[in-house]
Amino acid sequence: MAPRPPRRLNRSWKAYLAIPLLVGIPLVYGWFSTQVSRDSGRDKAERAAYDDMEPGWPPRLLRRIYQVPVPGGAADIRYYEENSLHASALYVDFTGPKQSVNEYLETTFSRTDVTSLPRLRDGFNPITPGQAETVDWDFTKGDWHGLRLKQGGSLPDVSIAVNKANPEKLVVRTVSTTRY
User: Fold this and answer.
1) How far, CA to CA in Å, does 89 sit from each of 18, 28, 66, 162, 174?
2) Within a 10 A sphere around the Cβ of 56, how many other Cβ atoms?
3) pTM of the prediction?
4) Which residues of the chain have a pLDDT value below 70?
5) I want to staple 158 with a disulfide (CB 3.0 to 4.6 A). Which of 82, 98, 103, 149 is the partner?
6) CA 22 – CA 29 distance, rounded (Å)
């Protein structure tokens, strides 16, 4: 018996098209995913390396987490978020008329378990020197009034200082700290 000749496969154009597509599509998808991931990491690294207050409104998520509702009439808004292993803090600085500051205080304390609105205490600065140094705040000049709200559990502790030296343009500085 004579040996059979080797069988030859006849591939059509569909097979020649399918093989590169089966390899090429996942390859392109993988390359695209790595580029997106790298860009995301660079953005996060740039924000984490930023060590000065950023101008503009804090992101809505940060305002909700730290319970810092910046009022609509505020101007010159700046913020800085600091994260560490056991605590995180949001520093917010803005100016505004008395009406905006009152709105800010009412909104801040309406989100807490405090039954009555606490009053700003004359000459009291609840922001520690270490916190002030973090963002280069100077409390030596001006007529500062403040209050501190300590909350239990996962709710943030809020310290607010208001400079009443210029009644038309009050300066508000807030530090909201969460510990875990």
Assistant:
1) 55, 41, 8, 18, 10
2) 9
3) 0.71
4) 1, 41, 43-51, 110-118
5) 149
6) 12
